[in-house]
Amino acid sequence: MLATKSIRCANCDALYQAVRAEPGPQTIDREIRCEACGGPLPARDGKFILNYFLWRKAARRQRPRRSRAMPVPQRRIPDRRD
Question: pLDDT per position in the chain (82 positions), as tens?
């Protein structure tokens, strides 16, 4: 029986569905990377291997906006010479 659980990337908070499966005789241990940021994900959970399915990429973090105060245009008052 396959067991599933939700896992989040530690670097970017992307959401994955991880499926635990028994390794076959030809299983190669290799490094698994997050598709969104390239951060490492665990390849095994005890004796089981983990297969990842990306559900949702990490939400963009909003940077604080800089205040861009526009200068008030100076109005020229014409000289009145009478």
Answer: 567 888 899 888 899 999 998 888 887 778 899 988 889 998 988 888 888 999 888 766 555 555 566 666 677 767 776 5
Task: Output the pTM of the full model.
Answer: 0.61
DSSP states of 43-73? SEETTEEEEEEEEEPPPPPPPPPPP-PPPPP
CA–CA separation, 21 vs 6, rounded Å?
Answer: 15
Cα separation, 17 vs 50, whole angstroms: 10
